[in-house]
Write a structure and sequence with these properties.
The complex is a heterodimer of chains A (348) and B (390).
Chain A lengths: L9 E16 L4 E17 L3 E5 L6 H8 L8 E6 L2 E2 L5 H7 L3 E4 L13 H12 L7 H11 L16 H13 L5 E5 L7 H18 L2 E5 L3 H7 L2 E6 L2 E7 H6 L4 H9 L48 E5 L2 E4 L8 E2 L6 H7 L1
Parallel strand pairs in A: 3-8, 3-9, 6-7, 7-8
Antiparallel strand pairs in A: 1-2, 1-4, 4-5, 9-10, 10-12, 11-12, 11-13
Chain B lengths: L11 H23 L9 E2 L6 E14 L2 E14 L3 E5 L6 H9 L7 E12 L2 E4 L5 H7 L4 E4 L3 H4 L6 H13 L5 H14 L5 H5 L8 H13 L5 E5 L7 H18 L2 E6 L2 H7 L2 E6 L2 E7 H6 L4 H8 L49 E2 L5 E2 L9 E2 L4 H4 L1
Parallel strand pairs in B: 4-9, 4-10, 7-8, 8-9
Antiparallel strand pairs in B: 1-6, 2-3, 2-5, 5-6, 10-11, 11-13, 12-13, 12-14
Helix pairs in contact in B: 5-6, 6-8, 8-9
Classes of the chains: A alpha/beta (348), B alpha/beta (390).
Chain lengths: 348, 390
């Protein structure tokens, strides 16, 4: 990230995004409530960088990724600007074309591949449909993409069940990048894999990013992986972003009590490391009925009276490092337009 | 075993041959296990060291499948001392779970069988060799002396019975003599309290789906503790859980260990969790132990190239690297294992000697052992190793 970048370099801007899922019940199956899966999330990603999104399961990481790509029907509120254009304003036909620019790699490489399709077809189907390359170059192009992702061209005729987990994930990656996307949502791409395979896939993703200038939204619950791959990190809790900032600031100077607890919970491979672990009591509350005030106050060790009634506002304490917590009231500056000010900070 | 045809697929005739051969072997072992009134002399033996709770001695567990014999555990030797935690770490498919199932004799029958070796389990003044013990004896060991915490708390509990009934059942079956229903219920409530469940009476009446993943894992732990076992096997108990919940469960297990003074065999693929929990660490690769030692030995002085590779390939919070190391290649096919060091094809530190038979265990210090040719000059080569004998 250089200082010369301006706001136009934000490939993606998410402003106050909300996605509620209705709960149906009662007589005549009417809507009795909403699961607030994503509740007022704002962030921006610069071209060619990786943003990591971390949090416990059920906190809305995946829904955020899917809502950005318009995979879950309509959003509830907010803006998703991709290259400055609102994603939800596209007509179906325009969206179809835009889909080549925004791709997703799913979590489970075992269920996201069609078992009855040879992998050459899995990777090449969308290439042909969208006419990415002329017909005569089609075969060569699919082979080139496979080669780039560490697959052998002779494997084109094989079926997904003939591959191991790591190789299947390579197929998923090849399928995504074959469309020459600019932006890829990686939804826990390594959590189903072994440590040694995980390293291979992470290295592959990094190589591809360098080669093709890709932008990633990297969703994961594994903080060590996120630290390794991301330039900026967002920490989610119960549908809201509680802290965002550059990776080294988040990991070296975590401000929100939830981030601190999350970081201290990661086991380190050092038998003599006796750290002061903050063990969070209880479980994540239900997103259908989130606590009033600060959503984290039920599990927070530093909970104050005001936390129970008032929702904290987002404050910027360091350049680009924002936190939503009452502990920092009066420090830093309150952020109104959440996506633009980080660029001001970078320019300064 | 029949040879594979040229195209890599087995012909029908070959499959028939293999399954006939398999049936002969497995039914022989099965019949031996099913016998009743077996004289004690057959399965009672002596511990090598009375301070050990369990001794694995050159255990071989094979799966007789239609595609050939899978040597899941291929000569595993290590001890679990009394009151200590032994961590078993390795990639999926390396045989860590099968090792633990061998101790419980819970292998999938009739294909999975312990074919060789001894697993000595300390029961006070004598020891029982699990591999030779018939089913009758094993039933009394399971639950009472050895118990297990499974990986998936979602599938380990029966969805149609209340939590209370499920925990009660364990106590009734294994420890229920002379106890009334009220006694058993009181014990269940007590167990739920031990594992840190606040609303014990309420949870007693609940069904598994009403609880979160962390709570279910606590119930499974309560069931494992029901009969005060001497040995607890924890098979990836935190893999399915979030980091924050994982921290809670690890904390709970650590506290319980001090309270009940049991030995724990802790199986996981997460090196961070192992470092936190284990006193001794056993690193497995492709069915064999490649390195074992105290946690300090393994984490501060890793010797085997596989252990070193495994450590380097895991990103660590607070340690920035440009590119992660990744071990090249993949685990060899378990049906056709090579006759040299299993790790040789993926190893970047190979020497000429590596072409020879599987390397024997080398003693680097009193506690630290590694199975690699690169340390033959430095350490004491164990003579009785299985590799050289072949």
């Amino acid at each position: 990230m250089s200082d010369t970048m301006n706001q136009d370099d934000n490939i993606l801007e998410v402003k106050h995004l909300k996605k509620y899922f209705p709960i149906q019940g009662g007589f005549f199956n009417h809507t009795v409530g909403y699961v607030k899966a994503v509740d007022d999330v704002s962030f921006s990603i610069k071209r060619g960088t990786t943003m990591g999104l971390v949090g416990e399961s059920g906190c809305g990481k995946t829904t955020t990724g899917r809502t950005i790509l318009r995979l879950d029907g309509e959003k509830t509120f907010g803006d998703v600007l991709f290259n400055g254009k609102e994603v939800y304003d596209f007509s179906n036909k325009e969206m179809n074309e835009k889909r080549t620019e925004m791709q997703i790699i799913f979590q489970d490489p075992f269920s996201s591949l069609q078992p009855r399709m040879p992998i050459g077809e899995i990777i090449g189907e969308a290439v042909r449909e969208h006419g990415i390359v002329p017909d005569k170059d089609y075969d060569a192009y699919v082979e080139k993409v496979m080669d780039e992702c560490g697959l052998q061209p002779f494997q084109k005729q094989r079926y997904p069940h003939e591959f191991s987990g790591g190789q299947r994930q390579r197929i998923c990656i090849a399928r995504a990048i074959a469309l020459k996307p600019e932006f890829v949502v990686c939804d826990e791409p390594v959590s189903a894999l072994d440590v040694s395979i995980q390293a291979q896939i992470i290295n592959l993703l990094k190589d591809l990013q360098e080669k093709r200038n890709l932008t990633y939204l990297f969703i994961s619950h594994d903080l060590s992986v996120v630290e390794h791959i991301s330039d900026t990190v967002g920490v989610m809790y119960l549908g809201s972003l509680v802290e965002t900032g550059p990776t080294d600031r988040i990991f070296n100077n975590p401000l929100h009590p939830y981030t601190q607890a999350l970081l201290s919970a990661v086991p380190t491979p050092d038998p003599n490391a006796h750290m002061n672990r903050i063990v969070l009591e209880g479980n994540i509350p239900s997103p259908a009925n989130p606590p009033a005030g600060c959503k984290f106050h039920t599990r927070c060790a530093k909970c104050m009276e005001c936390c129970k009634t008032d929702a904290p506002e987002v404050r910027e304490l360091e350049p680009g490092h924002r936190v939503a917590c009452h502990l920092y009231n009066g420090q830093g500056k309150a952020v109104e337009d959440v996506t633009s000010s980080s660029n001001d900070a970078d320019e300064a | 075993m029949a040879n594979k045809s040229k195209d890599g697929y087995l012909s029908r005739k070959e499959i028939r041959e293999i399954s006939r051969y398999n049936r002969k072997i497995t039914s022989e072992i099965e019949n031996k296990n099913k016998r009743k009134n077996v004289p004690e002399s057959e399965y009672v033996c002596e511990m090598k060291d009375s301070n050990n709770e369990v001794e694995f001695d050159n255990v071989h567990t094979y799966f007789f499948t239609d595609a050939g014999t899978v040597k899941s555990v291929d000569g595993v030797t290590f001890d679990i001392p009394k009151g200590k935690t032994v961590g078993v770490v390795g990639e999926s498919g390396c045989g860590k779970s099968v090792t633990s199932l061998s101790l419980m004799k819970l292998l999938q029958r009739p294909q999975g069988q312990i074919v060789e070796g001894a697993i000595r389990f300390n029961v006070g003044d004598k020891a029982i060799d699990v591999t030779k013990a018939p089913d009758e004896v094993m039933q009394k060991l399971r639950g009472n002396e050895i118990s297990m915490i499974f990986q998936e708390p979602m599938t380990a509990l029966n969805p149609v019975f209340r939590i209370g009934e499920q925990v009660d059942e364990v106590i009734e079956l294994h420890d229920g003599q002379g106890k009334t229903k009220e006694d058993i219920k009181r014990r269940t409530i007590e167990l739920l309290q031990i594992v840190g469940i606040a609303n014990t009476e309420g949870v007693y009446q609940m069904y598994p789906h009403e609880l979160s993943g962390g709570m279910r894992q606590r119930i499974v732990i309560a069931m494992a503790l029901a009969c005060n076992p001497k040995m607890i096997i924890a098979d990836e108990p935190t893999t399915a859980l979030d980091v924050t919940i994982q921290a809670q469960i690890l904390e709970l297990l650590k506290n319980l260990k001090d309270k009940i003074n049991a030995s724990i065999m802790f199986i996981t693929h997460d090196l961070g969790v192992i470092a936190e929990m284990a006193d001794y660490v056993v690193v497995m690769y492709a069915g064999r132990v490649v390195e074992q030692g105290t946690a300090e030995d393994i984490f501060y002085h890793p010797a085997h190239p596989y252990t070193i590779g495994l450590m380097d390939s895991k990103p660590v919070v607070g340690k920035k690297v440009d590119k992660l190391y990744s071990i090249p290649g993949k685990v060899p096919n378990p049906i056709n294992m090579p006759n040299y060091c299993y790790f040789k094809d993926r190893c970047e530190k190979c020497i000429d000697k590596c072409d020879g038979a599987y390397p024997s265990l080398v003693k680097l210090s009193d506690t630290h052992m590694v199975s690699c040719y690169r340390y033959y000059e430095e350490g004491v080569v164990e003579s009785k190793s299985e590799g050289d004998a072949q």
